[in-house]
Design a protein that fits this description.
The complex is a heterodimer of chains A (345) and B (424). By secondary structure, chain A is mainly alpha-helical. Chain A is built from 14 helices and two strands, in the order ααααααββαααααααα. Helix content of chain A is 73%, strand content 3%. In chain A, a hairpin with a 2-residue loop joins strand 1 and strand 2. Chain B is mostly helical and 424 residues long. Chain B has two domains: 83 residues, no CATH class; 319 residues, ABC transporter involved in vitamin B12 uptake, BtuC. Chain B contains 17 helices and four strands. In chain B, the strands form two sheets. Chain B has a two-stranded antiparallel ribbon. In chain B, strands 3-4 form a two-stranded antiparallel sheet. In chain B, helix 4 runs antiparallel to helix 14 and helix 6 runs antiparallel to helix 12. The N terminus and C terminus of chain B are likely disordered. Classes of the chains: A mainly alpha (345), B mainly alpha (424). Chains A and B meet through helix 1, helix 5, helix 6, helix 11 and helix 13 of A and helix 7, helix 13 and helix 16 of B.
């Protein structure tokens, strides 16, 4: 049969796609870039993990919270007087960092607000009636549609076509990636340093917050045993709001960092894939586990880029999804194990 | 749930009364009403009633799309509605069905069979069963490792699967044509005539009302009826009872001796093959497949149809599919409605926004969907079921809830499960 004959070249072209040289030659460069992406995934993953830990719910709309954060920081920069053009901002390092900080706060405000709003409008009525988890998930999908389409169609009308719409935003470039030093043959740029350091700082701060403060104790208590926590005087509703707020804030911060790395990624549909990957990262590390989210994020970022080098750019997302499926099959509780309450009690 | 608790739910809405009336009818009477109704629906694209007919796109084509979406909704309903497994990657099966037909019959594909020994006139018909078989196998491949996962995890994994299928279609450009897709896919060549040299199913047949869309719509109606008969029989069998048991409480089902994994796999397999059938129809109608048609967002749309129509109600989800397909097309290209000027294209553009809103609002106020499924007394056969229905109908006409006979309590109108699943 001719069909069998023609399988040959197709399969061989797939096999020749295994580019081991590309992986070994660029190993450290890939690692550095992977850690950059990974730290962004980790920040978004914390949002999934916290909400899952407290509510046993996958907040499917979290990717859209992240997407809103991208638009939030972009709008902040526009309000500050920046316009989209090819040149980076060149008025000194300190001022750049200040503007980055302001933009990050703008993104965090939008994302945090959206996350809390989502909780209030969509999830709380369901919780009041004790709806099954499928209902929550479908609501989250609906909310995801609404937020995406809001940015797709409504936002451009509200902002006189300056924000949102079918196409990605023209990038506003604050920082031009320049090589700062070389690490084992891999160039490390200022953008990568900023992303990595900021993400790690935020992740550690969140972890400290959950571990040390009264609010954090409340979150852990509700995660471990909602009924007992309520009896001990912890307000469950307030804890839930707080977890959504923290998740949203971190997603907003991650949104700014992401746009530094991928300036042309600000588009209404830009949160979807990243959201799935961040969720994969959370599962990889052990969902409900904060340190797991960080570890999973970094690991996924690095693995994904190794896979990309090995199989080609177009297979990057496939690598991430296959990784997710493999982890869920063989270790559904992730590397560090599940549960916010148990892991850090 | 005790009987006392369920009796107040006998407050009947319009839909409930209609259902009671229908259920209390004898089988021949049901056929007598049902068949003309189906014929009426089938004749819609021929009659093309004034307001209902779409303006911006061909009405026959819209109905053909509805037919395919109805099949998808029925298939997804087996997985989501009957068995309670949230599958967010259902579009993957649709894609596999369409691409199988494309790969076997498109001249762009390395596996094209129509060059050598297969006549193009029969290639589509030949490819359809293969497409169904291959999607069933792919359902097995996806299900075997992943169906041990529960709820949310399963949803995400299937989502990943749907996206992987699309990426494969996009990336394996040597085989699938990549982003260019596969063109000139075969279709059944039937009813050739002087003005329709390629038969009535050809996309070249554009003479309304009997254009290709209408013919594909009729074909899909036949397939829908066949699939409904199959699925309906499964529902009333041991398999269907196992599915419901799994949906309501998987652990309890397992303990009661239901091989849950096996039946979940069956649900996946049957759902997948129906999706594959729909994909094969799509490939034949459009004669062209590209990866972008099979974006994961379509999975959400299919899910929307199932949830809107009423999970578990196979007729309800068909209505859901109709809403999903018809409403955006209804507004497309319309500049006025009953004399009121509207911007129809704009409204059609907002479809995902409206469907998202519909999902959120529905989940808050009516999570069971527009036409909720009822748990029937499956074990006792239809006779007793009809008897209880008649009793309930009599009780409802008396109005006083106390008058409702105790037998009606045996099949409570399904509540929103808030009593049983108060975790979260």
């Amino acid at each position: 049969m001719s069909a069998v004959m023609t399988v040959g070249p197709a399969v061989s072209s797939v096999v020749s796609a295994f580019n081991v040289d590309s992986l070994t030659h660029n190993f450290w460069a890939l690692t550095v870039d992977g850690l950059t992406y990974g730290s962004i995934y980790a920040l978004v993953a914390v949002g999934y993990t916290l909400v899952y830990g407290v509510l046993r719910l996958i907040n499917f709309a979290h990717s859209e919270i992240f997407m809103l954060g991208m638009f939030g920081q972009y709008a902040t920069l526009m309000l500050l007087g920046f316009t989209p053009n090819g040149n980076a901002y060149t008025e000194g390092t300190l001022l750049t960092i200040v503007y980055l900080g302001i933009a990050m706060l703008g993104g965090m405000a939008v994302s945090g607000g959206a996350a809390v709003g989502l909780e209030r409008v969509a999830y709380r009525p369901l919780r009041k009636r004790g709806a099954p988890s499928l209902v929550f998930l479908i609501t989250a999908i609906g909310a995801s549609f609404i937020l995406q389409e809001f940015v797709h169609f409504v936002l451009p009308k509200l902002t006189n076509q300056k924000l949102g719409g079918v196409n990605a935003q023209q990038p506003i470039r604050l920082v031009e990636p320049t090589v700062q030093f070389t690490f084992l043959g891999a160039d490390v740029t200022n953008v990568e340093i900023v992303i990595f350091v900021a993400a790690i700082l935020l992740a550690v701060a969140t972890e400290r917050f959950i571990t040390l403060t009264k609010f954090g104790r409340g979150i852990r208590a509700v995660a471990q045993d909602p009924v007992t926590a309520t009896l001990m005087g912890v307000s469950r509703e307030r804890v839930i709001m707080l977890t959504f707020l923290i998740g949203g804030l971190l997603a907003g911060a991650a949104a700014l960092l992401y746009t530094l790395r991928v300036p042309s990624g600000i588009i209404y549909s830009g949160g979807f894939i990243l959201g799935i990957k961040a969720f994969s990262a959370a599962v990889l590390g052990g969902i409900g586990n904060l340190r797991g989210a960080l570890l999973g994020g970094l690991l996924l970022g690095v693995m994904e880029l190794y896979g990309q080098a090995l199989f080609g750019t177009e297979w990057r997302d496939v690598v991430a999804f296959v990784l997710l499926i493999l982890v869920l099959m063989f270790r559904p509780t992730g590397i560090l194990g599940e549960s916010l309450g148990r892991a850090r009690a | 749930m005790s009987i006392e608790k369920t009796q107040p739910t006998l407050h009947l809405g319009v839909g409930d009364k209609l259902r009671l009336w229908w259920d209390a009818l004898a089988r021949p009477t049901q056929w007598g009403i049902g068949v003309p109704f189906i014929v009426l629906i089938a004749l819609l694209p021929v009659i093309r009633p004034p307001v209902i007919t779409t303006v911006g796109t061909d009405f026959g084509g819209v109905l053909a799309q509805f037919g395919m979406y109805a099949l998808l909704a029925i298939g997804l309903n087996v997985v989501v509605g009957q068995t309670g497994l949230l599958d967010l990657g259902y579009v993957g099966f649709y894609a596999i069905g369409a691409y199988t037909v494309g790969l076997l019959t498109s001249p762009d594909s390395p596996w094209n069979l129509t060059d050598d020994w297969l006549s193009r006139d029969w290639a589509w018909l030949f490819a359809v069963p293969i497409a169904i078989a291959i999607t069933a196998v792919s359902g097995l491949i996806l299900g075997t490792p992943t169906l041990r996962l529960r709820g949310d995890y399963l949803a995400i994994v299937t989502l990943g699967f749907g996206e992987i299928v699309r990426l494969l279609a996009d990336n394996l450009s040597d085989i699938t044509g990549g982003g260019r897709g596969l063109s000139q896919i075969a279709y059944p060549v039937v009813g050739e005539s002087a003005d329709k040299p390629n038969g009535v199913f050809s996309a070249g047949n554009t003479t309304a009302p009997l254009n290709s869309g209408t013919w594909w719509f009729w074909l899909s109606i036949v397939l829908i009826i066949i699939v409904l008969l199959v699925v309906g029989n499964l529902e009333r069998s041991r398999v269907g009872r196992a599915w419901v048991a799994i949906r309501e409480d998987e652990d309890a089902a397992e303990i009661m001796g239901v091989p849950t994994f096996k039946f979940k796999l069956w649900a996946f397999l049957i759902g997948a093959s129906i999706g594959g059938l729909s994909g094969a129809l799509y490939a034949g109608q459009v004669q062209f497949v590209v990866p972008t048609t099979f974006n994961v967002i379509n999975s959400m749309l299919f899910l929307c149809a199932v949830v809107l129509g009423g999970q578990g109600n196979k007729l309800g989800v068909i209505v859901g599919a109709f809403i999903i397909v018809y409403l955006p097309n209804f507004f497309l290209g319309r500049t006025e409605l009953f004399g009121i000027p509207i911007n129809g294209d704009d409204i059609a553009n907002y479809k995902y926004l409206f469907f998202g809103l519909a999902l959120v609002v529905l989940m808050i106020f009516r999570p069971q969907g527009l036409f909720p499924a009822r748990q029937k007394l499956l074990t006792y056969g239809r006779g007793i079921y009809v008897a209880t229905r008649r009793a309930a109908l009599a009780a409802a006409s008396v109005v006083t809830p106390e008058a409702a006979p105790a037998t009606a309590g045996g099949e409570p109108l399904k509540k929103t499960a808030d009593d049983t699943e108060g975790d979260a």
